Amino acid sequence: MYNSKLIGLKIKEIRKSKNISQEKLAEMVSMNTRSILRLENAQSSPTLETLEKIAQALNVDIKLFFETETLETREQIINDINKNLNKMSDKDLKNFYKAVYHFMN
């Protein structure tokens, strides 16, 4: 089992580090840009075949996508937290706030 979210972040991180746009990567692997976007945002799970194509296009070993250690930036972490907070009910948000407040103090 693998984590689609972490794989998507890895794909995005590597793609950006090589200055390759989503459009260009999509072209390189014969996919549409929307599919690359969905993979990077963990809205869909890549097949092994797709990962092999992406790894080859990015010139990296496919194992890199499965490494558990990710190099998330502060901005990525904050964006992910905000996205999840926006999905919470008011009651859950208040409880979450209380838990974080007690943890921080």
Automatic annotation (TrEMBL):
Report the Pfam families cross-referenced here: HTH_3 (PF01381)
Q: Which residues form the signal peptide?
A: none
Mind naming one GO cellular-component term on file for this protein? Answer: cytosol
- Keyword 4Fe-4S carried by entry: no
Which InterPro entries did the record assign? Cro/C1-type_HTH (IPR001387), Lambda_DNA-bd_dom_sf (IPR010982), TransReg_Diox_bact_type (IPR050807)
Q: Which organism is it from?
A: Candidatus Limenecus avicola
Listed SUPFAM superfamilies? lambda repressor-like DNA-binding domains
> Could you confirm whether the keyword DNA-binding appears in this record?
yes
Q: Which domain of life is it from?
A: Bacteria
Protein name, UniProt field: Helix-turn-helix transcriptional regulator
Keywords on record: DNA-binding
Q: Which GO terms describe its molecular function?
A: DNA binding; DNA-binding transcription factor activity
Q: Which residues form the HTH cro/C1-type domain?
A: 11-65
